[in-house]
Design brief:
Elements (H helix, E strand, L loop, with lengths): L10 H4 L11 H7 L4 E6 L1 H5 L6 E5 L9 H7 L2 H6 L5 E5 L2 H9 L6 H18 L13 E4 L15 H4 L3 E4 L21 H9 L21 H22 L28 H22 L5 H28 L3 H30 L8 H6 L3 H16 L3 H5 L1 H23 L4
Parallel strand pairs: 1-2, 1-3
Antiparallel strand pairs: 4-5
Keywords: Membrane, Transmembrane, Transmembrane helix
InterPro entries: Alkaline_phosphatase_core_sf, Phosphodiest/P_Trfase, PIGG/GPI7
GO biological process, one term: GPI anchor biosynthetic process
Length: 429
């Protein structure tokens, strides 16, 4: 959300041993331009961005049963912070709503009171910033965002619609944007927040960003500034494309010779990935240059729409390709890994056979592998079954995301086996 890069599955593991975040990101950009920042909430921010916050108070995210105090520890700082004028960025990361989901799911009795509590927090911040035009705090942007959704049972981190469906709400006290009703079609990817905030606050877009600028959130900018922002976003994504596709060489040469008639000469883009990217980028560059030449003519509004659409064609195509490139894994290596796991299982099973055979070799010279299997104890069968189940489950992303349920059933089964074993060894009478 602060770097514009797509996270991988291993990021979940790394979150348990969080280290400083070294990739280019918005907070580092803000720090470089002299911003004072304060953070209250999830202590992960302090681990990812050490020494960036002037004031902070971190809370732990591992006490999932705590749905009250974890948020009160954040809100208690809010009245005093809203009186201060020495910060440029205030981050409040509330964990209570997430904890309610884990404890009781989306329909928990605790959900409605917690949502009302969050409403009160947003109301306090919003009313505090409705100040006269020209006031320093009157330029404040309030961004309400959730980093994930949740299923009916309160789980998140997977790829289902409920888990990836989240909220981003931009509120500016002096903006006219509130007069335009929001609709469900206003959708964006989480990575799109990064370039949008970078443009709004006049800092460079992080170099590894794959997000697309949300121009609908830039009501304070003129058409010239919006197209310039789209151009900057296009340059940044084009640089990432060139890093992935060394043969990519895009120019908009020849566009300078176009006149107004050039609006009808925009190319249709087909061919290889490199050819499509270059074609889309060149179309946007040509239309941008032609739009500049129209000045303030009566048709400039129509030309602006076409130019913005051309930029978005390139940006969405490039962003989608880069995102897929991050999540795509080499099939060959995955196949080798699966074969290695299966081979390890086969070796383990063979070792178990050999051990059992050695136990009976003196008294049963003709003891076969089939006889060994038939004489396995229930505990041995369970151990082998667990290994096979776990290895098999690693082949499905859905099974990995819901791995806790596998362990729930396996643990319960283990307890029943131990209970049965205990009953068997108890002396009779």
């Amino acid at each position: 959300m602060v770097s514009g890069a797509v996270g991988g599955f291993l990021d979940v593991v790394f979150n348990f041993n969080t280290q400083a975040f070294l990739d280019d990101n918005l907070l580092d950009q803000f720090f470089r331009v002299g911003w004072q920042m304060a953070m209250f909430g999830d202590e992960t921010w302090l681990k990812l961005f050490p020494r960036l916050f002037t004031r902070h108070d971190g809370v732990s995210s591992f006490f999932v049963k705590d749905t009250i105090q974890v948020d009160l520890n954040v809100s208690r700082h809010l009245p005093e912070e809203l009186k201060q004028d020495d910060w440029h960025l205030l981050i409040l990361h509330y964990l209570g709503l997430d904890h309610v989901g884990h404890v009781g799911g989306r329909k928990s009795a605790l959900m409605a009171p917690k949502l009302r509590e969050m409403d009160d927090v947003i109301k306090m911040i919003h009313l505090n910033n409705i100040l006269p035009q020209g006031s320093k705090k009157g330029e404040t942007l309030l961004l309400v965002v959730s980093d994930h959704g949740m299923t009916e049972s309160g789980n998140h981190g997977g790829s289902s619609y409920e888990e990836i469906d989240s909220l981003a709400l931009f509120m500016a006290p002096n903006s006219e944007a509130h007069r335009e009703a929001s609709t469900t079609k206003d959708m964006a990817n989480q990575v799109d927040i990064t370039p949008t905030l970078a443009i709004l606050f006049g800092v460079p877009i992080p170099k590894n960003n794959v997000g697309v600028l949300a121009v609908d959130c830039l009501h304070s900018l003129t058409d010239v500034q919006k197209l310039r922002a789209l151009e900057l976003n296009s340059w940044q994504l084009l640089r990432l494309l060139k890093a992935q596709l060394p043969s990519l060489s895009c120019t908009d040469s020849g566009s300078s010779g176009h006149t107004d008639n050039g609006w009808s000469k925009v190319s249709h883009c087909n061919g290889t990935a490199e050819e499509r990217f270059c074609c889309l980028y060149s179309n946007a560059a040509v239309l941008h240059r032609l739009w500049k030449s129209t000045g303030s003519s009566a048709d400039s509004g129509h030309y602006y729409d076409r130019t913005a659409a051309a930029f978005y064609d390139f940006l969405t195509t490039a962003s989608g390709w880069l995102t897929q490139k991050v999540t795509d894994k080499p099939v060959g290596r995955l196949a080798v890994g699966i074969l290695a796991m299966l081979l390890a299982c086969a070796v383990l099973l063979r070792l178990l056979f050999c051990l059992r055979q050695e136990e009976h070799v003196e008294g049963n010279q003709g003891f076969s592998d089939m006889n060994i299997v038939q004489n396995w104890s229930l505990e041995e069968v369970f151990v082998v079954a667990v290994i096979i189940i776990l290895v098999t489950s690693m082949g499905s992303s859905s099974m990995i995301e819901e791995e806790q349920y596998i362990w729930h059933f396996l643990t319960t089964t283990l307890f029943w086996i131990l209970f049965r074993k205990t009953i068997q060894i108890l002396p009779l009478g």
